[in-house]
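Its record is retained below.
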Amino acid sequence: MKTFFTFLVCLLFSGIMVGQKPLDELLKKYNTHSVPYISVDELRMFQMNDTVTILDAREPEEFEVSHLKSAINVGYNNFSLDEKQLKKLNKNIPVIVYCSVGIRSEKIAEELKNTGFATVKNLYGGIFEWKNKGYPVVDTSGVETENIHTFSKIWSKYLHSGNPVY
């Protein structure tokens, strides 16, 4: 009985200490929904059946830990539409932008949309939700990994699968 009570107390305090908000509340707070979302399940199906460009709006050190296969890292802090790799993209092919949870990626997706990319979407829940659904991520060698860069311990609470790295 004492063990069960201890478990309940720990559970209660961990919930209070973490103060976890559901992902949708977080995105409603920080995003304007100026770019439509695509779910991880939709992207997974889209990825297997169609041509799509996937852009990672996280910083290079996050991308190096893991990323979606075939993603191009464009970063956030130093993002520039003048980058050679962006100038080479076909503006008529759908572009999906992601980050950790979907906040930074909305800002990058807005810029792409405003410069004439025909179809731009923001990955709802980002790489965290991708991994939470059990979809694979790869490291810089292209090898599948369980590691996900979570930026900080605070953001780690939105990752429920994989190994958080920060």
Notes: The chain has a mean pLDDT of 87.
